[in-house]
Each structure stands twice: as structure tokens, then as C-alpha cells.
Specification:
The chain is α/β, with parallel strands linked by helices. The chain has 15 helices and 21 strands. Strand 1 and strand 2 form a beta hairpin. The termini are far apart.
């Protein structure tokens, strides 16, 4: 971080309760000398980045006295002052630090082992919620019973405390009459303080380390459960713009060594990140900008569909291109990422039902009715800001034909980017549920790309789905946002529209700013852990991960009817911009597009010509 001192390493031993010795490596930063000789100042803002415990023999290092602990004043929300601590044991974590039981190499700011205790929790966790300035336990559940192993209150014994005291998490300390139980791992004996009176200073000191460890182990449990759920129900994400990045960076040349998806690091998405994030299905965006409308939008869209299909061909061990809900479930079983095509923007069909059908046959399974521009038949969200003028008042007559043809084909209607009037019209007209592939809740962030409450009610009534966007501007309406605020949007949509209306539409590689904690596609387990922390049930989480989208997709498939005659009525020529457009079809059959008076005049002229013959 800017302004931090260079890192230095401190090495010291720790005697763990089972008698083995471990070598403690502490990479510290921003630890400034204290006036007290041999001590360093520890404040919530100036703490160590990384510590790592590794096995070593007792002969390598002498025993460190556990009576010299790092005073964890950092964890006490009521004590913002600095504390002195000896340099040898290391320091407590900074916000965002991970705790892990794995002796893996420590990346800067990522790994920490608690000193003077055997590993407290068995898996990796995030500590962002423990380091909030307004209290270490702001998001923890009240009245939590935590049973875990931790450093006991008897300084030099190195015992393990089995904490069974039930009280509200976030309380300053257990108090002068705390009932604390601990088990000595060497003697195998259980001891109790009962209701004995504990000195106030001792009780206060105990509270400083007791409740953080309770919250740490609780947080660890949430992430463990998130990983367990995602192993059987991986996430289906509604919108990812990696194909657009491949066009911009490599002109869609996937065999360029720089475009290798196993090592590409300049994007939010690559194969290792997808695996770490338990992404089981992805709607890849076949996006072409609005400035291609009435020009080469169809060509550009075809090229983006092609690059998605070539991703599946080049990395068959990772991607499986599919076109239906059964294909998604097959990919789950094979441990691959089901890859589907979502065309982002109605301008990509160039106002043609024939192009719509052709894109369906090439694999398109959702179409976003507009991007950030009107089409000749649907209005976009900028109409609601006043930056664009309404042309169709939602959907024109031809726009309604597009929706009906999508229903007939089995293409999911996507209402991200459209105006409120277009949302309302499509939700009322469609015979199948619709999706918002990457939008959030308007009530939490008043951005017109988000979904207002009355539309969320229509979403609920129609069994439709809002897949929450992670873009900071749609999450917090500011340049900065965090994971917790994204969870707020998921919470809100669940509250208003129901748990079946919630999904994930991260918009990775399509946005410039992402929330802290959701920096790339590997971070989905942390978001799921947050939902579990907020007491979402496993059924609700599985719905948000995949089952809600699968339900909508199956309903769209069931509503389709390929035996029904396809729509054929073209859009009126007068509604099209003609500068770069030929008129074949229109000029060849003028009678189909003339008003009755013009038709009568044409017939009179034809009769006169016949008489002259």
C-alpha cells in the first residue's frame, strides 16, 4: 500500500500444545519503533501483512514464552488506542487478511497464523468483517454458541479453551463472572472457572482475544459451507464479457500465446479463476457496441459467437458449449463450465426476425432487447434519464413481434439495459419468465440500469429472475463498493420478489470497477459465505447459485413451440435508418407497404398503361 515501509522478516519459535515446535515467519509492514525498547507500536492501521507457520524441529529454535502474547487490542471495538507488543511473535492481521491451516507459501497480505495456539480453524477465511472500524463483530450473528479450540486464559500453560459460553457476539468482554471452560491438551483434563470471580483486567484481556476467535471460527464455517454447496451446485453467472476482451486485446486470435486462458492475467476471467470460483455455467456475452447499429452489427455479432464456440473447441477439458438446460446439468456432472451465448443488444438482429432465428440456430439463448441505445423497436434505459428520447414507448408493434418470436423459439428475454416502459411491456407480453442478466436493485442504488420495486413485483408474479450486477456504479452508486453491499442487493431482491427471483450476473470483464472482495470470478465463494452468514438457507443459496436460472430456462423451453408458424411481418421501411441499407424486398413488393390511397393510385396507373397497350 502507498506510504508503507518496506517489509522485513522476523523469526521466532512457538511451542504448540502437542509439543511439536513450529517456526514462525512474520513479514511485517508499517511497524514503527516505540519509545519502549524492544517493542513496536501496533495499531489497527499498522499491522503485519503475513505470518506463516512451518514445521521445524525443536533443535532449530528455542522455546518462546507464551506469557508474552501480542496484545490483541486491534480486536476491541471500544479500544482504538495503540498497544505495545514484542517483535518476536508477530502481529494480528490487517483487514482482508486470510487465516489458513495450510503451510502454503504466503503471498503478500494473504496468509496468517495465530501465534501461541494450535491452528484455530481448518480452512481459509476472510477477516474483512472483523476489522470494520465501527466494531469487529458488526455482521456476526447474536447469541451465537461457538465451540472451538483456542488459547486458554492460563498464560504459561499453553492450554486450549473449549468455549461454550453463550452470549451476544460483539460484547466487549465476558465480564467479571464469565464461565469459561478449557481443556489441557497435554493432561487431558477439563477445568472450569465456574462462576468464580475473575479480576476485571483479566476478564477484559480475555474478552479481547475470545470473541475474535469465536467470530473467526464462525466465518470459517460459513466459507466451508459455501464451498461444500458450490461443489454440488456451482454458480451459473448471467453475464461475462470475456469475449469482448478477447476482441479488444487479441482481435479474437485465440492461438496468440498472450491469449492463453490458463495464464491470461489482465482480465477478471481465466480458467484457474473460474475453477477457484466454482463457476459451473456462464452466459458469455456476444456484444457489439451501439455504434455498429445500421452498419456491421450482424457481422460483429457473428464473430463474437464464433469466438465463444472456438473457446470450447480450444479448451474442451474446461468448456462445454451447450444450448439448453439439460446441457448445463451435463456440464455440471462432467465438471466443466457450461458455455452459452447471450447476445447483448437488440441492434444485433438489425430489426430482422430472420436474423433473430439465424442467431438462435447458431446457439444464442438470450437476447438483451437493447443495449445503451434505442433500437427501432425498443427503448433503452437512457430514456429514463432524459438522455435519449422515447421512440417506441417501450415496445413498438415490431418489438412485440420480436418478443413473441423469442417465446416461440425458446430464447430467454433479457431486460438488462432497457427502459422501465420496455420492462413493463415485455413482462406483461411474454408467455415465459424473463431475466435481467446483469442488473441490481434501484431502491438501494438509484441508477436507471437497476430494477425498481414495482418491476420487482412483476418479476415475482411472472416467476422471472434478477441476476445481480457487481459493477460499483450499480451497487453503491459510487466509485467504491464492497462485497457486503452486493449482498445487500441480493437480500433486497429476495425480500421484495422472493428467493426464487435472485441470481448472479457479475458483469466481469465488462466493467472498470468492482467491489472490494469481488475482484474477479474466483471470489464467488466469499459472496456465498456472506449470504450464509446472513442466514440464507441452503435451499435459497442453491437457488441463487443455479436452480433459479435453471427453472427459468426450463420454463422458456416448455413455452417454445417450433411447430407454430414463425413470424414473417417485416418492420416498416420507414422505421429504419436507410443511409447504409439496401431496400431489397421492400422495393420489390411495394404494394405490401403502401397506404390504401397510394395503392389505389398505383392500380389506376397500371390500368392506364394497359389501355395504352
Amino acid at each position: 500500500m502507498p506510504g508503507e515501509a518496506s517489509e522485513s522478516e522476523l523469526r521466532g519459535p512457538v511451542r504448540v500444545p502437542n509439543g511439536r515446535m513450529r517456526s514462525l515467519t512474520t513479514c511485517t509492514s508499517s511497524l514503527t519503533p516505540s519509545p519502549t525498547k524492544g517493542h513496536r507500536l501496533l495499531t489497527p492501521g499498522n499491522v503485519s501483512s503475513v505470518t506463516n507457520l512451518q514445521e521445524s524441529s525443536a533443535a532449530e529454535v528455542p522455546e518462546l514464552n507464551v506469557n508474552d502474547p501480542v496484545r490483541p487490542a486491534l480486536w476491541n471495538p471500544a479500544t482504538p488506542r495503540s498497544q505495545s507488543c514484542p517483535p518476536e511473535p508477530g502481529c494480528w492481521p490487517s483487514p482482508g487478511t486470510r487465516i489458513t491451516d495450510s503451510p502454503i507459501p504466503a503471498a503478500p497480505g494473504s496468509i496468517l497464523k495465530l501465534p501461541h495456539s494450535r491452528p484455530v480453524c481448518p480452512q481459509t477465511i476472510h477477516l474483512r468483517d472483523l476489522c470494520k472500524p465501527r466494531g469487529a463483530f458488526k455482521d456476526a450473528k447474536p447469541n451465537l454458541v461457538c465451540r472451538t479450540q483456542a488459547l486458554g486464559p492460563r498464560g504459561g500453560r499453553g492450554g486450549n479453551a473449549l468455549i461454550t459460553d453463550k452470549r451476544e457476539v460483539g460484547q466487549r468482554s465476558p465480564g467479571p463472572k464469565a464461565s469459561v471452560f478449557w481443556q489441557d491438551s497435554c493432561l487431558g483434563q477439563t477445568h472450569s472457572s465456574g462462576r468464580q470471580r475473575v479480576p476485571r483486567d483479566s476478564a477484559m484481556w480475555t474478552g479481547w482475544w475470545l470473541w475474535p476467535l469465536v467470530a473467526v471460527c464462525t466465518a470459517d464455517q460459513f466459507r466451508d459451507n459455501a464451498v461444500r454447496l458450490m461443489q454440488s451446485t456451482p454458480v451459473i453467472d448471467g453475464h461475462n464479457d470475456l469475449p469482448w476482451q478477447l476482441l479488444k486485446k487479441f482481435n479474437n486470435q485465440l492461438q496468440d500465446p498472450r491469449a492463453n486462458l490458463t495464464s491470461l492475467n489482465s482480465t477478471h476471467t481465466n480458467i484457474p479463476k473460474l475453477k477457484a470460483g466454482f463457476v459451473g455455467a456462464q452466459f458469455w456475452s456476444a456484444y457489439t457496441p451501439c455504434d455498429t447499429q445500421n452498419k456491421d452489427s450482424v457481422k460483429r455479432t457473428l464473430e463474437q459467437i464464433d469466438v465463444i464456440q472456438r473457446m470450447c473447441q480450444l479448451y474442451p477439458e474446461t468448456f462445454l458449449c451447450v444450448t439448453d438446460s439439460a446441457g448445463i446439468q451435463q456440464a455440471f456432472q462432467e465438471g466443466k463450465v457450461a458455455s452459452l451465448v447471450g447476445v447483448e443488444g437488440g441492434h444485433s438482429i438489425d430489426s430482422s426476425l430472420g436474423v433473430l432465428r439465424a442467431l438462435y440456430h447458431l446457439g444464442m439463448r438470450y437476447l438483451t432487447l437493447t443495449h445503451s441505445c434505442n433500437t427501432p423497436w425498443a427503448d433503452n434505459w437512457l430514456v429514463d434519464t432524459g438522455e435519449d428520447e422515447a421512440q417506441s414507448q417501450g415496445l413498438s408493434s415490431f418489438g412485440q413481434s420480436v418478443v413473441k418470436e423469442m417465446n416461440r423459439l425458446g430464447v430467454i428475454i433479457d431486460l438488462a439495459h432497457v427502459s422501465v416502459a420496455t420492462m413493463e411491456a415485455a413482462l406483461q407480453l411474454s408467455k415465459a419468465p424473463v431475466i435481467f442478466s446483469h442488473s441490481s436493485a434501484y431502491s438501494l442504488c438509484h441508477h436507471r440500469r437497476n430494477v425498481p420495486d414495482h418491476v420487482l413485483q412483476l418479476v415475482k408474479q411472472t416467476g422471472s429472475l434478477v441476476m445481480v450486477n457487481f459493477y460499483n456504479d450499480y451497487v453503491s452508486c459510487k466509485a467504491e463498493a464492497n462485497l457486503s453491499q452486493v449482498a445487500d442487493h441480493l437480500d433486497y431482491i429476495k425480500k421484495v420478489a422472493g428467493a426464487g427471483a435472485v441470481g448472479f450476473g457479475g458483469d466481469y470483464d465488462g466493467v472498470s470497477r468492482l467491489p472490494s472482495g469481488l475482484e474477479d470470478v474466483s471470489k464467488y465463494p466469499d459472496l456465498v459465505a456472506e449470504l450464509l452468514r446472513r442466514q440464507w438457507t441452503e435451499e435459497e443459496v442453491r437457488g441463487a447459485l443455479a436452480e433459479n436460472l435453471l427453472r427459468v430456462f426450463k420454463a422458456v423451453e416448455q413455452a417454445s413451440d417450433h411447430k407454430q408458424a414463425p413470424g414473417e411481418e417485416p418492420i416498416p421501411l420507414g422505421q429504419l435508418e436507410a443511409s447504409c441499407r439496401t431496400k431489397y424486398g421492400y422495393s420489390g413488393t411495394p404494394s405490401l407497404h403502401l397506404q390504401p390511397g397510394a395503392l389505389l393510385a398505383s392500380l389506376v396507373a397500371l390500368l392506364l398503361s394497359l389501355c395504352l397497350l
